[in-house]
Each structure stands twice: as structure tokens, then as C-alpha cells.
User: Fold these one by one.
Assistant:
Number 1:
Amino acid sequence: METCKNCPTQFEVSDEDKAFYKKMDVPQPTLCPLCRQQRRAAFRNERQLYKRKCDLSGNDIVTNYSSDKPYKVYGYDQWWGDGWDPLEYGRDFDFDRPFFEQFDELLHDVPRLFLYNPFSENSQYTNHSYHNKNCYLTFDSAYNEDTLYSTNLIVKLKDSMDCMTAEEGEFLYWNIYTKKNYNCKFVVHCSGCMDSDFLYDCKGCSSCFMCHGLRNKQYYINNTKYSQSEYEEKMKEYNLGSYKKLEKLKGDFMKMVKGDAIHKNLHIDNSENCMGDYIFNSKNVRWSFYADNCEDIAYCFDALGNKDCMDTYESSIDCELQYDCYACNESSMMRFCVLCHFSHGLEYCDYCFHCKDCFGCTGLKKKQYCIFNKQYTKEEYEELRGRIVAKMKESGEYGEFFPVAISPFGYNETMAQEFSPLAKEVALEKGYKWQDKDKKSYLPANYNLADDVKDESEDVMGAVLACGSCGKNYKFMPKEWALYKRWGLAVPRQCFDCRHEDRVLGFRNVRALWNKSCGKCGKDFLTSYGGDEVKKLYCEECYLKEVY
């Protein structure tokens, strides 16, 4: 067993791990798996957006770099255009100074891409997304249209809001871990459902309300069967348009989920020899969380279509032989890289696209044999890379991901704060950055919301509202307002960030595993339910007997 140098946790380095490290020619890690993921997540500012000027054109842009960040930030056309050359920032490696110190200086000099949202239309307030149309504050998403306030793997949604990890749906509100739903609100772990509200773990259901564990049912309320006419009459008792009544229903839903619904210890489907949670259509996956169509991976978060990778976060689509990388899509033989796409053979690189065989570079496009943004011949590159690696091994830098301290973002702006929250004082003590609140975003409200949406005026769209949880100002978009009216749904009293936090705290387990036993048969198993948050936690066999 090894002891993590960042926390007192002991962790195992298995024979499989060692074989992979040998294949990638890297030393064993000094941090435990969760601390390694925390370090990578500290480089992903997914959802905090700001307005500032493009440092090349002077035009206004929306970006995830606040105006007080000491970095050059370019808009899409400027960064991808020919108006600048990243090789102009090239420099020699100084063997008398630490690598990470020099790389941090390079990050401050080379222009940074404002956001990552290519091939999108009228969706400037999106990030880590592509192929979206008319979307607003939607992140980690693709192929969506008219979708608002949604994040964490949002794919092919239309006319939807406030969703988290949802695919292929229309007219959805507050859908979490769902697929192929239509006109559903407040549903979790459901697929193929329509015209239903407040469902948990239901499949193929329609016209159901406040139910759990149903399969291919219709006209159910509180897991009780009704005729169509009885169902329609009974539903008149519920008014989702009243904020007070909706909050009561949400509370009832949470009680049902935690106390009545049956929970399977792990969400692993159509997979072989897998350990982790939310693993689908995969084989030989170890200690990973949310993996789909993957094979021979370990310690990976949010991996889609990966093979023979270890310690990745948000690397997806034809990724192979990656180690300790963040968001390196469609890339292979990558080590210690950040957001490098369509590339091969990169080490310690950041925001490089369509590149090969580069080391310690940032902002490159279609380059090969570069170190610190300086061009070399193949022979010069290989000789110098070998010397730098040897120097980094002596100093203990090689084999470690970039330090959190050189992330361009405040720790509390990044996904690390969501997975591994820290108080400001603790983060600063560790040498991490911190982004303080903008006081101009916390003005007093100038409008009082009506309890029932049918009594609300369209004047609300021009009003200054204040979040009931954190005090941050928010507003309603015309498209958003139209959906609330269509659904007869009470408008929220919280900002997008607090609504997202509620969904995370309520329904996303910590990405770790604990030893527990089945509440039905007593069989021991691993589970991502760490505490006593649910009453009925069953092994897969007992779960299947109950719901089918």
C-alpha cells in the first residue's frame, strides 16, 4: 500500500496499474485516485462565465476567464485565425529552474481560447459543448436545441431546462440520468417515459405521477393504478403552478426516493468485469465513474468510447493510451495534458489541437516536434525531451499532473469545488487561486414573484430577481418563460447555480465506493451510497426481483 502525499489515505498500486505505467513509461503516482482526479478537475471551469474584451480584436466576448485574470484571451475567430503565431512565444527550457514554474509563465504569455463551443449557433453562453442551437447556460453538451440551464452530459435535448445527465428528450424539466423521455418533469433514473412527473427508476411509463420502480405502466399515482378518467380527475388535485405546493411535492418526492424506492447498489448495465458506478456497454473497467463503451480503463471520470486509458477526466471519443489527462478528446498516447484534441504523442501540453510529438506546449495548432512552443527537428526534439524528462525525474516533477496552483482558474470556479469542496481559507493556504464574488451580481430584488404562475405578469422578464439561497441575481429568458407557461409550472426562486447544486446534492453520489450489504438478502457488495441516504439498498439480484 502507498500513502497519498496530499491526504492520509492509503491506496493500492495493483499489478495491472504497474503494467500500464510501464507501457506508458511513467513512474507510479504519489497521490490517491481521488486526489489525482481533484487535481485534474481544478483545471475545468465548466460553468462560470464572464464578459470581457478579446485581447486581439477588442470585441466583447463571453468567456470563462474573468476580466481580472492575468491571461490573454482571444475570441473564436481570433484564436483560430492567422493573426497570431503561437511559435512566436517559443523559448528555451532553463535546466536551472523547475519545469512547472516555466510552464506557468508560458501559460500567462500565450493567448487562450475564450471557450470551447464549436459548431454552435446562437449559443454563446455555453462551454465544453458543440453542435448546439439556441442554447443558454448549457454545459458539457452536444446536439441540443432550445435547451437552457442544463449540464453534465446533455445530449440531443430540445425545449428542455434544468436537466443533468440527460439524453434524447423533448420538453423536459429537471430530468436527471434519463434517456428518451418526453414531456416529463422531476424524473430521475427514468427512460422511455412520457407525460409524467415525479418519477424515480421508471421505464416505459406514461401518465404517471409520484411513482417509483414501475415498468411499462400507465395511469399510476403513488404506485396505485387508476383508470384514465380516475387518473385525470385525481390529477386536478395537484397544482404544479403554485410555488408553495410545488415545494411540498418536491419534498414528498425526496421522501419517496429516499424511503420507499429500491436502489441498486451500482448502476452497471451490459458490462463485463467492471468496478465503479454508472458504467454501460463496457468491459474491464476499474474504479471509474460514468463510462460508456469503454474497455480496459481505470480511475477515469466521464469517459465515452475510451480504450486502454488510466486517470482521465472528460476525455472521450476514440481515446487510447492516455494517462493523467483532462479533456483530450479523439487523442492517443497522451500524458499529462489539458484539453488537447485530435492529437498524438503529447506530454505536458495545454490547448493544443491536431498536434503530434510535442512537450510542454500551449496554444499550438497542427505542429510537431515542439518544446515550450519552440520548433525543433525530430532528432533535436527527441534528444532535448530526454534531457528534460531526466531533469524532471530528479526534481520529482515528471509523472505528476500540473499543480493546482498554476490552474488559470480559481479553485471555486472549477469542477474540483463540486467534487472536492474546500473553504476559501483552506484553498488559499494550499496555494490555490480563489475567485471572489462580484458584488454587482448581488443586488436587492426589485420584483415580488406571485405564488402561482398563472398570476404572474410578463413584467417578470425585465425584473431583477435575487436567489433565495445565495442572493445572486438571476433573470427569466423569454424562451424560459414560455416553457413555464406551457407546463403550468411555478417559476424557480433560486439561481441556476443553486438549482444545479440541489440536483447534485440530492442525486449524484460521491465518486467513491464503500463496502455494504444488501438490505434484502444480506449479501456484501460495493456501492457508491456512502451513508444512510436511502433506506432500501439492494444487490442487483434482489433489485431485479423487486422491480421486474
Note: The longest helix spans residues 243-260.
Number 2:
Amino acid sequence: MNAPANGSAKDKDQVLIFDTTLRDGEQSPGATMTFEEKLEVAELLDDMGVDIIEAGFPIASQGDFEAVSEIAKRAKKATIAGLARAISGDIARCGEAVKHARFPRIHTFVSTSPIHLEHQMRKSEEEVLEIIAATVAQARNLCDNVEWSAMDATRTSIEYLSRCVDAAIKAGASTINLPDTVGYSVPDEIREMFRQVRENVVNADKAVFSAHCHNDLGLAVANSLAAADGGVRQIECTINGLGERAGNAALEEIVMAIKTRSDVLAYHTGVDAAKLTRASKLVSAVSSFPVQYNKAIVGRNAFAHESGIHQDGMLKNNRTFEIMTPDSVGAGKTSLVMGKHSGRHAFMTKLEELGYKLADNAFQDAFERFKNLADRKKHVYDEDIEALVDENIATAEDRVKMVSLTVIAGTVGPQAATLTLSVDGVHETVQATGNGPVDATFNAIHAIIPHEAKLALYQVHAVTEGTDAQAEVSVRLKDPESGSSATGRAADPDTLAASAKAYLSALNKLQVRRERGQQLGMTDELDLAARRGP
């Protein structure tokens, strides 16, 4: 069992890990996940020992409500939280969504900083205090476990923040979150904020204090750890640091900093660090947000050494240049050389080494794609396999898929593309020309799937070395009507094929989002600033 139902830690040195990948992380532009993808991520988070999973914002849409409700029903160990504004309807909807969880939590928030009260809330300090008392009490009547957050706490005066915290605890909140909503604070400030508030509030010992830090200045992890030094025993974070703007504190960095530097960070978590790499890969695949190569803990280069001096040291003793081992975060070791003669058993073993566990149909599809790739490349690297499987996960439910592509290119134009797509299982073929082979390919897609989306990003890089390396393409499309954007990624030894597949991936996501909006009648859409939450 993870955290007890009241949200407290097992001992005074345990730091509870509150994962908000499915709520705050999904608010990253273009990172929206499907219902099935959310369930898959939640299952892994629960399995790896995350204490609290914030599964979504139930009032935002029927889809969000259903996802939170289903995750609540399926969770085996974790507390399942839903987010709610300090509005009666939000709180009631949230309570309904989490009620089936073994350990349910309602997380409600309201702004407290002067700039938010004046420009967003348009309320006085006294009015906000009344709202806190009423809404936290309502949540407490629906659920034994209530978390209250002071949005933009780090730009709120200590005196007023302490009054708000006191009101929330008196009304029944058992967790108090003081977030650095805009990533403004520095470690010394946030440590002192928590220390002073806990000293000022008489009944502070009745609640667990929590930190939720954004990364606008690149200080989210440092601020979160400083908050722990100030008495915090819950840290809110996301896989890969996913989140709005510059993102949130990265869960994998928090966990490994505490584990690796136990000499100065005298805390512990219940997270199984060996599952961190798998979680990173899954979230990257379903969100189409690539992990930067030099990302701490889970980046491709996190345990790579190219410098001759480093290599010499590693050969003598790996502790010379590694403060943790790849195995400790589930990165594993490369031991199988994969090629066209490899069989299913070898491929399955390699997938397990890389942290993947696929169902039968998904495995068969991945194996066939691997064999096709092996016929086209001399060497199939781990990165090739990762790109292949991640693309397969991300596009498994796409309505529109590429069947074939033939392009005529060269110095004499115009260039031409003949493209066949499968649209809901029906094949359609078209020929198109353009100013270059990529433009011709995208024009062909537009001819089959008319749309108004604009190309906001087109990026290509090689997955591995060599002239036969797979090209990994990222495409971001923006819907001018809604302003929303979606990012698609694909890899293929043929750059044009990868370009077409990445474009289709992004287009599929925009189409799914548009259909959801039409189904839900989004005429009463939420205030954008309020939706963001802490």
C-alpha cells in the first residue's frame, strides 16, 4: 500500500510523490493523450509506486471525467486525485469522478497573489478567504482526503498566505500545496516561505505540506528539494518534466536526486527507480514530446561517454564518471546485436531490455516493422528499435495511415508525389506536385484530407549514424480556428516517408481534438487561466 488514505507519509522522512503528468503534463500544447493512453500511463505510475496520481480535471470535459473515473476504479495502490477550481460545480464533479478510488482525493485551488486577485479573480482578500472556507468544506463533505492549493503562492505575502492556509486546514484540508505557479522563486526563497508559513499557522501539524514547482527559470527540481528542506513532505512533479510553458519538476530527477544524494537529502520515496526509463519512454511516445538527448536520468546520452578521457576512466572504474548506474533507472545494458537474422525470441528479449512490454498484436506488428527495417539497414541500433516501437505506440489508433508513397525529385521541377492513404480502412490515392519533394508530399496529403491546419514546425534529424540511418521527423500543425496545435513524430530510413507519417500523426491528433470539441459542445469552455490550475 502506498500513502494512507489521509495523504500522510509512513514516516517523517518519507517524501510523497504526487504525479500530475495526466493533468498538468497534458496541458502542454500538443500533448493531449487518448483515453486508452491515459489508462496505460496511470497503470505504470501505480505499479512503480507513485503515491498520488492526479488523473485529470473532471469538469474540463466528459472525456476528462471518464478518464479520471476509470483510473480511480482501476488503481490498486495509489491515491487518485482530481483537480477542481474553487467553484461548487467543479468540486461536485470532481467528487463524482474519484469516488470509486480505493484512496480518493479532491484537489481544489484558488489564486492568492495580489496580481491574480486584481486581474484574474477580481476579488478582495477577504472574499477569497470566504471562498476557501466554503469550497474546502464542500470538498471535505464529499471526500476524506482534500488538498488545497494557493495558486501563485510564491508571489503572495507570507501574512496573507498564512491566513489562507489556516482557513483551508480549519475547513478540512489535509494537504496544503503552495505552488510556484509561474516558476518565479529561487531555492532560498521557497525554503523560507514554507518554514515561515508552517511557523505562523497554529494547526500546521494537521496537514502535509506540498510543493508544485514550474521550470520557467530552470529551477523546478532545485526549488522542490529546497522545499523539502523547509518541511514539505509531498512533491508534485511529472514524468520528463512535462507541463505548461517550460514544464514542471521532473519526477525522475526528484527521485534520483533523493536516492543518489541521501547524504545531504535525508529523505526517501516509495518509487521503484528501475521503472523510470520505461515511464519516460511511454510518456514521450503517447504525448509525442521527445526527450532531449542530454536530459538528466532518462536522456539518450545520460549514460553515454564519447570523450577519450571519460572512456578511459569508465574502462577502469565506471564510478569515475557515473554517479548512478543505468540499471538503477531501468536503462539496462545493450547485449544483443540485432539484424535481419534475429528471431522473435531475440527481438522480445531486446524489447524487454529496453523497457518495453507489448501485447501480442502490438508485438507482432513491431516485429514485422523491425524485419522490414533490418532488410534496409546494415546495423539496427537500440535507438532504431526505440524509434520504431514508439512510433507504433503513438499511431496505433490513427484513423488515417500511409499505405504507400512514391516521389519524383531532382533539379528539374516541379517535384511530384503519388500517395495512397488508408482513411478509416478505405484506400485513397492521389498525385500532387510541389516546390520540392516534401512540399509535394504534404500537398498530396492535403488533397486527400482537406484541412486548414498550418505547418508550424518541420524538423529532421538522424536517429543513428551512417548513410542508412533512420530519419526522425517532427511536424507541428496549428489549427487557425481553435489556436490549438499538435505535434507528430515518425522515423523511417526514407526521410520523405518519415515526413509523411509525422504530418499524418499530427493531423490525426488535431482531428481527434476537433471531434471531441464538437461532441462536447465546448461553447461553455473554461476560463483558460483557471484551467491551468496550480
Note: Confidence is low (pLDDT under 50) at residues 1-6, 519-531.
Number 3:
Amino acid sequence: MPTLNWIGKDAVVNHHQDVPFRTLNKKYTFGDDSTDAVNHVSMDENKIIHGDNLEALKAILPEYEGRVKCIYIDPPYNTGNEKWVYNDNVNSPQIQKWLHDVYHDSGITVDDLSRHDKWLCMMYPRLVLLKKLLADDGAIFISIDDNEQANLKLICDEIFGKNNFVAQFIWQKKTGAADPKGIATITEYILCYCGNNLHLNKIFTKNYEAFDIKRYRYSDEYVNERGPFYYDSLDRGSIRYSDSLNYEIFSPDGNPIYPNGRKTFVNDGWTWKWSKEKVQWGIDNGYISIVKNPKSNNGWSVKYKIYLNVDNEGKKIDKSIPFKNLITNVMNADASALMKDIFQTKVFEYAKPIELIEYFILCLKETKDSIILDSFAGSGTTAHAVLNLNKQDGGNRKFILVEMQDYAESITAERVRRVIKGYGEGKNAKEGTGGSFTFYELGEPIFKEDGYLNENVGTDRLCEYIWYSETRKPYIRQTDDSLVTKDYQLGTNNDTAYYFYYEPDKVTTLDKAFLNTITVKADMYVIYADNCLLNDEFMQLNKIKFKKIPRDIKKI
């Protein structure tokens, strides 16, 4: 498989492992479920996170790894004119050189090829973490334009797997005026990858909404089992003439009827679509109608009924059409107009239309109770789309937005607030969708730079981290007030009991006295403590594994 190499790639392929694991600090909750509850992160809530998206993606791994059904991101397109804000702390001389004052006073031109290297270095670790968050039966959609489309496709093939590539959507975003080259560039792309192609039949739904159901406007005595129907002509024009499909069909007044209104058989390519035997079956079972037609040479037409719920043999079917990879009915101007309606002024340059995000969410099966993630949140379009869909179909979708810019509160969160409560006045008033969200800031890292635990984050955050590092599962809170019980038990997973024997202001020791406090029966015990007085033979005999704090705490 072709792979893409660039200067600095080696430094970022595993950079996600070096990113500090930070906590999330709750600032407030807004909406229907507003509460001032204790600061812990809940999976059953909408989230807006202010902070660098690389660190934010790392921070949500304990809760959401492998659980996100739909990811949509609209990363910088790297046009050469946008402000670069993703200055990752990568310990590579080349990258540090590039990322130092990237957009200096002299500016960067389209011909500065090194900007592609910078863009790839920025995107790669973020995509790796998004891959970890994506569910096997989920899909990621990535907006991009011509500047990086080719590069993005190659690194996505590498990260998500070439076999998991689904489609490249082409979106006509505007009608457009010609650029200096004389070409009106009116399209962008959205690359789509699934979590695991073995689950393709569980990922994408059938496009019932787009099917022309208005066409099925007739009903008969079979409507309850077959659904409504529309008429189509039994005549078929074809350059391949077939004697077997040329025969007389008799009208109710006993006169013969021939294909295409002929008064006799003519070898001009017109035949019946069905065989004589099937036509008789159709007449006997209500699939064929012979109706008067003054425009026909013989005064009659033979029609067959196309039912909504069954095929022409009476078998149950799903009427649907595929989702198309060409999107032409959603314009970027609609997004600009909507933002102006919400804020009553122009506040954001590059908002995406909510209909575009809704389209991708509805492509996927069983999203009504799923998690939708956007780690380049911008103006908050993804949250708006999720809230709209929930209101329309009664769903309980949850969104996670990440935005690092200062407008995360003033634009991103403010838009969501107005969507929830409603906006506009008079005839332009828009009813609110309802719902709620919690706003978070990125907190302190779990580990200090010297490798020791950061006690400022609190015992609860440490317990969450250790449980996830051991089990790769989100932590289930033991009590309302604290994650850890009085006997320091974190929980049991796969017949292994985990204990975090930790006190911020004193040294803890694993000894027989501590073992006497353990009441849980398990096949294996993993116990974290500062010291251990038990010998190896005793621990092996009693299936105990000691892990020293902080040395043996895995760094995710």
C-alpha cells in the first residue's frame, strides 16, 4: 500500500503517546439538566470542551474509547492564508523549527511547501486518537479541499486502514465565481472511513427519507399488506425484439391489446415487459389493471402496479435509494445566513451548514442514542445538527465539541445556548430545541514533568485514570461522593480485583494487615501502593500483583 512520507513524520507517528493526560474541569451546565453537581465527568451529557483538541481527545479516552458512533471534523484546509494555532509540543528539532512563529510578519505563500509538512504533523496524532475513539460500527467524516485532499487520503488510509475507506463525498458548496485561473471552484470533499469494514452492514442505513414516497399515491384493497402504489406501463421499448413477449391481452370488452397501442404485432422493438403467464398471474392477483386510454390506437392501456412494500412477485422489500456521494442541495451561504439569524450580526467566517452534518449522521444506523464528536468545533454546527435531529425524531444523541480558540465560550457555546432556548423575534423567532450541555476547560495533567503524580487533580481523577489504564473501560462510580471505597477497591474486571491504596499525605504499604481488609473474592489481585512488604513467593501463591506508585502506573 502506498504511504506518505514527509519531513518530521517519524516524530509524530507516536506523538499521541507523549501527549500529557489532562483532566477536565467542569465550569458550568446549561439547559434542561442544569446542575451545580460535584465536578465529575458524565458520559450521559453533551460536552463543550475548551482547549487544544489533541490534549482534549486524550482526556476523553477513558470514557469514550471505541464508543463514538459518528465523528465529523472540519480541520484547517491549509490554504496558506489562515492563522496557524496548532503549535504542538513535539520534541523534534525540525518540527520545533517549523512551529516557531509559523506565520511571521512576512507571511506564508501558497508556494511554501513546508506548510504541508506542518499540516501533516498537526493532523497525524489527532487522527490516531480519533481512530481510538471511533466505534467499530461507526464512521468518521472529514471535510477538506484541494490543498490537502491527496495528503489526507494517504494518511487516513494508513491510520484508519485502506479497507475501511467508504467514500469521498463531493459537496457543491456554492455556485461560485472564477478564480485567477479562470476556474470556478465550487466543491469541497468529505472523506469517510468506517471503524471496521466487517461491520459495514451495521453502519450505513437505507435512505428512506430521500425516496419519492409522494409517487405512491394510489390505494386498493391490498393497501394494508402491500402499501400504496403507482401505475407504470407494461409496454417496453427495446432494440431487441422478442416474440415470446408479444401476445394479445384482451380488454374487458373482448378486444385484443398490443404493445405501444399497436393494432397488431409490429417488429419495431416494442414488447410487453412481462411474460404471458406472469400477466395472467398479475391479473388474477391485482397487479395488472387494464384501463381506458383515448390516446391509444385501441382505446386501452395495460398498467401494472408498483407497490411500496412488495415487489412484482409479492415479496416484502424495503423501498430505498442509496445515499449519494454527490451533495448538491446544501449551500454554504445557508450557513452564513443562519449564523446571522442566530447572532443578529456576522460573527464567524467558515461555518458549515447544519444540513450537511445532519446528512452524515442520518447515513448511519441506530444513531438515536449515539455519541457524535467534533474536535474542530468552530461555530458549533455539529451540536446544532444533533439538537435539531433529537427534536425531530425524539432521539437522545449526545455531542462532544472541542474548540481551542477563545470563542469557544462566546460563539461556540453561545450558539448552542441560543439553539436550546430559541432565538430571533417576532415572525423570525425560532423555537428552541431543548436539551443541555456542560462546558469544560482542560485541567492539569495527571503526571508532573518529573513523572510523579499530580496530587492537585484529586484522588477521583487518579482512580479514573488508573482504572482506564488497566481495563480500557470507563470507570463506574462506586459512591456519589468518591470513586474509591473505604477499602481502596477500584472494582473488578475479568475476575481481577483492582486496588489503589493511596493517600496524598502519607506513605502506604502493602502488607498482610492491608490484605486482611480485602473481602472481595477474585482470581487475581492488582494492588497499587507506595511500598510492599510481601515477598514474591507469597504474592505468587496468593495471586497478588504489586504495582508501585507512581512508577508502575501506565502512561497512556
Note: The mean pLDDT is 86.
Number 4:
Amino acid sequence: MNQYLDKPMHRVDGSLKVSGQAHYTAETAPGSVLYGGMVLASIAKGRITAINSAMAESFPGVLGVVDMRTAPKMNRVETFPRGPAGETLVPLQGPEIFYPGQPIGLVVATSLEMALTAALFVHVQYDSEEPSTFAGEGIPGGAVRTMMGGVHGDTAGVWDTAAARLDAEYDTPGNHPCPMELHASVAEWKGEMLEVADTSQWPLGVRYTLATMLGIPRENIRVRVPYVGGAFGGKVLTYAHTILTVLAAKRFGKAVKTILTRDQAMNFTGYRPPSRHLLRLTADGDGRIGLLEHKTVSQTSISDRYLLPAGEMSEVLYSAHARNIEHWLVPVNASTPSIMRAPGEAPGMFALESAMDEIAWSLKMDPVEFRLRNIPGQHPSGLRWSSHELAACLTEGAKAFGWTQPHAPRELEDGDWWIGHGLAAACYGAYRSQAAVRLALSETGKLVASTATSEIGNGVQTVLTQILCDTLRVGSDLVEVRFGDTEFPAAPVVGASRTTASIGPAVLDAAEKLLSRLHGIAKSDSNSPFFGTTPELVRFEGLQLVGGGHSENAADLMRRNGLGTIECEGFAGPQELGKEAWETLRSGVNTIRMPLGRDAAMYSFGAHFVSVRVHKRLGTVRVDRIVGRYAAGRILNPLGARNQIIGGLVFGLGQALMEEIVYHPAEAGILNNNLNDYRVPTAADMPVFDIGFVQDSDSFANELGTKSVGELGCAGLAGAIGNAVHHATGIRLRRLPIHPEALI
């Protein structure tokens, strides 16, 4: 019987965070620290012709400016997934400007306020050109087709014979992760050794980027990542402010700390790009999908080709006689997009689930029944599903919501409000990487597990504590999980909802090795009751070694044999990844098992049911209730999993109703790069949440049976909200976010 796993457990770092004792990068201050203030380009395209920093350097406390006039030659680093750089454009290497807000310098001063102020007085002259922007309709002439996707079946023939057809375009704007904690970096050189603290989801990625860019051995760099105050993909990669901070620390011979302002972070630290979705969907009279065609057009930068994989769920989620999935990129004068929670799934499933609703209405069929009739028996690749509980999510969710065949639009009302109900499916891949964990047992009975992962608010300390407590039968007061240090055993980037699936099995392996090690000591100790016994008999119960009718305190055994601490390193990974992949991951480059394994296709599923009200005169949309049922493998901590789902749902709510990066139509700059004008949901916007998990046993995913949770909540929710708004008003909106003026 598990005492910790499969049960709710409050976060082990909760008291530290609410009491202010948890430390973050900006609070890291080694000795006498200097401060950096970023200088950003004010044009979108062109060349720097002159930099005059005399006025900035005349300010009291300003030591100087790091810019292209003084920067060393540095090497190019690939961006995700081939590398961990935020963009392949190496900072300060020349006068070319490719996007507004491009980092072009760092002012260094004795205070943060002076550094930020002086940065405003670095005068830069440019030769500017007219920038390119993401505009128009359809697939523009300059778009570049990628290799992701393909055609299956007779798409033309199925279209011509369909009973119901839809040919529609859906548009989603750019979104920014907007984590509460601002990006920050602290760098200090100690001779040839470099120490860095960074707000990062990937300590090994930071080290790899700096080592490669600067041309120094990775062993000469130590990166530490204390608690991270939110990330959501925006802190996966290494950006220019970290690199400039390292250069400044080298030049001025002291530790330098750079903390980005909100507007700076929104200019160059990654975002979900604007995208356009061309959907063609057909069904026969029985509600079986004939054609599912999804063409995605998304923004990328001039320097990089960032692919938004928005069509993936259109390949996976429903069966179809014919299918065509395409992805197109439009290079523009903007910074390189990056990963953001459910990167392609969130925008792609808004389009897909909206189209599914439109077809269901045209067939006069219950949208739940329409989805149930099109659940595929296997993955399009021919692989079996490791588990597939979408039908259970839909039926259990519908029952909990009280779902019935929808009334006609505008039939449900409450005074000045129209009432609408909508639903959407949810799906996200079950990814996994390799990982290692060092487990140390001291003679006092304290167990310390160390791994290089980051703690970004995802609760990794808590779930790893649960695994250790139940595996070794010890109390949580005897367990400590350490993280965020490149000196610890390697762990993957915290992304793709794979942290528990990757690191959890490594904890199991380390615990088994610790038991074996202790038994090895005991069976060779003539004073031990386990002298000469076999290892399979032994288990932990508290600090007692127990088995075969014998019992001994582990601490007594260690003291008797002169052992202050025993260390074991556990390792685990999927069969698809071998030694070469491990060395790549250890270096700081992403390696991952995709949802398609050797033997099965592995995905998490869910269903969102939403009730909204829309004001008849003002067009204001309020989400009153969200009922969700999710199948995500074994739920190790129901409380933590529920919180992760709600976090994703809040993202989906923001995507549907509020969040939008607004670009200047001619100058390409971001007009709302602050939290006054870029709106995000607050406590006042929260609906009532009814979250539940269906039984989902999955032995294929990993040794613990877990699957992705964190990004499942925001995959599809925007579609459910849009569908509910249509039910309330009769107005079908195909562009996000849903603005009140569009409903008046």
C-alpha cells in the first residue's frame, strides 16, 4: 500500500515560497556585484552606422558599455531542437539589425537603476529599411514549405462526394509566456572558471550555449538555476542577455547581474508566433470524417526557421479517409519564435476543434457523438495506442457537465446574458528523455537526491520526494531533492511535459542500487543479520533493512563499517534512446523519445466542457464553468496534477479571450509589450473548475506509468470556449482572441 504515491501531497517547497525563503536568480548577489542594463535596437531592419555612448558613460556609477565595438568574435549556436540557443543570430557581431528590440549592447553600472537609465542614453544611428511583416490571407508568396506532414488518401475525391463540407480559415495571434519572474542572469569569472546563475528551464543548455559561443570547455562553466518563478517555455533557451552578462563580467572583472524589464523580455525572449490555419473538413451522412486537411502558415524570423507544429493533432486525434497536413513558414523582421506551453497544439487545436464543431452543427449531430464516431482504432502510422481513453473522457465529462444535445443558438438566456455550452477534445504527446539522479544516504538517515533539472513551479521536488518515500519506505522529513546545478547528474530540459516521466524512473533505479549497495555491505559484515544472504530478500522500511525475517538499522550498519555517506547514481531512459543520445543530452542538446515509440503511440487525452455567458449589448464574454476529464496515465499526485491542469486551462482561457501580441503594421515593433496592454487572466476571470481523471494504465510510457499533464489543459480549450460563444450568440468567430466588439 502506497503511503505517498497516488495520493494528494502538498508541495514540499510551498512554505519556502509563501514565506519568501525560496531564492530566485535576481536575488543571487555574489560579493560586490555590478548591474547590466540592456540596449535594444529601435528599428526593425537596417544597419547601425554609429554608436555614441559618451553620455551614458558620463552617468555616476557607470563603468562602460559592451557592444559590437568591444565584443569578441563568438561562435554560432543552433536553436531548438538542434541546439539550446534562443536564436542563431550571435549578438554584437556586426551592424545588421533584423528585428525591433534586437539586443545591441549592455550598460554596466554600480546599481540596477543607473544601468537601466544610462542605457536609454546610448545614442545609436541607423540606415533603416522597410521591414517585412506577417499579414494578408492564405499562404503568401514568400512562404516556405517544411517537411512536416503529408498527403494520405484521395483528398479530391472525398471532397467531391461529401455530405457536409467546411472550407475555413482560422487565425491565432502571437502570444507571450509572461512568467511572473523576470528573466535574469548573474555571471562571475574566477580565473578561467565561469559561474553563472540563470532563470532557465535547462541548466545544461545554458552551459552548452556559453561554452560553444565563447569557445571554452564545458567543464570550465558551472550553471546554477535556483527556483524559477514561472517559465511556460519562455525560459527553455539561452538568450542574448545571458551572453552579454558573461562578456561584461569578463571585461570589468566583477560579477555582473542583468534583470530584464518586462518590455525587453517580450521583445526577444521567445513567443508563440502568429499563425493561420486553412482547414478543409468533410463528413458523410453518418458523421464519419472523409477529408481532414490542415495547412498551417506561421511566422518565423529572418535568421531562423522555427516550425510551429500545429497540424500534429489533426493527424492524430480523429480517423479520416483522406488527410493532408502541411506547414508553411513566413520569414519576417521579428525575433525568433520559441516554445510556449503546448506550442503547436494550442493554436492548431483551436482550428481543429472549431471546425469539428462547425461540421457537427451542419449535420445537426451532437458534437460529443460526432467525436465519438471518429475515434481512431490505431495511430495513422499503424502503431497501436499504448492506451486511448478519449471516449471515456468525453462520456464522463459530458455526464459531469450535464451535457445534452445543444439548443439552437440564443435559446438559453439569463436576463442580459446569452448562455452557451461548448466542448473540445484535448490531446498531448507522452514524451520522454533519459535522465540521471545521484542518491546519497548519510549515517543520520538523511536521503538526498540530486539532478540537474530546474524547478519552474512544476512540482518536481514534490513528486520525486513521493517516489523516494514510497520506494524506500521513509518519511518525507528524511528526504531532500536538490536541483538546478550542472554539477549534478544530467537531466533534460524541463519541457514537453516529460519531467516526471524522465527523472522519476531514474529515482527508482537509484533507490534500487542503494538497497543493493547496502545489502552488499551487510552480507559481507559478520556482525550483520544479513551476513551471507541474497539481495532479493531485502527492502527498506523506514531506516530499517528488512527481509527474510531479519532487520537492521541502515545507519548502524554504515557506522559500524566506517561509512559516513553512501552514494548511488541511477539512470533511466526509453529503449529508443541509446548511449549516443545520452552523451548528446549530457552535453546540453535536446534528445527525446517522441510519442511514437517502437511498440506503441503514446498520448494523453482529455475533454473540456465549457459554459459561457455573453452580454447581449456589450459583447462581454464570461466563462462560468469548466468541466474537464483527462486521461494522463498514472496520476502520482492528484493535487499536483489538478493544479497543472488548471494552470493549462487558465492559459487556454487567456488565449481565447485576451492574449494577443499586437505588431505595428508598418514598423513591425510590438505595441503592447507590457502587462498593462497585453492582457492575461487574473483571479477575477476564474470560472468554477471541475477537474477529474479517468482510469488510464499505461505500461508503455515509462516504468511509473505516467504521461503528460502540464500542457494537456491548454490543448483545445480555446476551441471549446469559441464553440460555447457560438452556441450563445450564433456568431462563429474564427480569429483569436474573441473581442467583445465582434459579438455586438
Note: The first helix runs from residue 14 to 18.
